[in-house]
Amino acid sequence: MPVSYATIYLELAAERGVSATQVLQQAGLNASLLSDLTGRISPQQYVHLVATVLALTGDGGLGFEVGARQPLTAHGSLGYALLCCSHVDEAVSLLQRFWHIRGRGIRLACYQQPDCLVFEFYSDMPISEGVRRVLFDAMLSGFYHSLRFILSESHLLGELWFDYAQPDYIAHFSERLPTLRYQMPATQLRVPLALSERRLAMANPEALALAIAQCERESRLLAEEDSDILVSARAAMVLTEQGYPHPETLAERLHVSTRTFRRRLQMQGVSYQGLLEEARRRDALVLLEKPNIEIQKIAELLGYNNPANFTRAFKEWTGRTPSQYRAIREVK
Questions:
Q1: Into how many domains does the chain fold?
Q2: Strand pairing partners for 161?
Q3: Are the C-beta atoms of residues 260 and 251 closer than 8 Å to each other?
Q4: What is the pLDDT of residues 219-273, one digit of tens each?
Q5: Where among 224, 245, 273 does a domain terminate?
Q6: Which domain-ending residue is among 193, 224, 255?
Q7: What angle do CA 303, 304, 308 make, to 5 degrees?
């Protein structure tokens, strides 16, 4: 994770009377770790720092403050690249391509629904509920403010979905945000689909090419620093008529043995079954938006021989059955 992300939490802590020294000491982090603003810290160190700031300040609304204070340029070369895109759909494509260089530990899925463009977020890391709320509050509100900026919109229609209960602190931020929906089946930013074709005022092809080149360099460096094949494995978990790829197929595509593939996933705290469940959850939400596909057929497409097993799994993911989820979406 970029060090610059962590320093925002230290600044907020200082404003609440908690010094950076106090935060770092309690978090067990060396101050030199954050002295280079172009450097990086591990996702685990980042989460530990956020948890410490949350504990010392007692301010659950930190995430929305962070989201409001992070300009698009805070995301380095990726932020500059997004600013220089010609259209929103080009920016979305670029975001998916290079998300891994800035969003370590939190995954992003972008897809279109009949009436909206969806940005959906998942966590890769084992984190407490309080810290998870802070991180996701920051991610969604930051996305919202950045999208308003590149579109030159004073107000942007859309919705922020959260898969947790509405917190008390939201009253301090609701006026600066779009429609907020809590206890939803997923954590998402949803904006009108028509925006995907919007031309961006700051489009600059030459600057875009330079920013993309820098993103590619950072991507190569990260690949060299950690031999993590998790990103590639997730990208390859695509649903086809034959279902999802088996471990042997994934290993072959990634040019490793099946044994090495499983071992390297295990080193990241992930299993093939975990990847499969993530992909099923992602695709189930998309397929349920299509009313012409029966739920039993969706279960078959996702590889469930018994529809009841799909219903059980979906309820574990979202707290609702597939039919309940579809009914809610039809009402909306």
A1: 3
A2: 181, 188
A3: yes
A4: 887 766 545 677 788 888 999 888 999 999 998 888 788 888 887 787 666 789 9
A5: 224
A6: 224
A7: 160
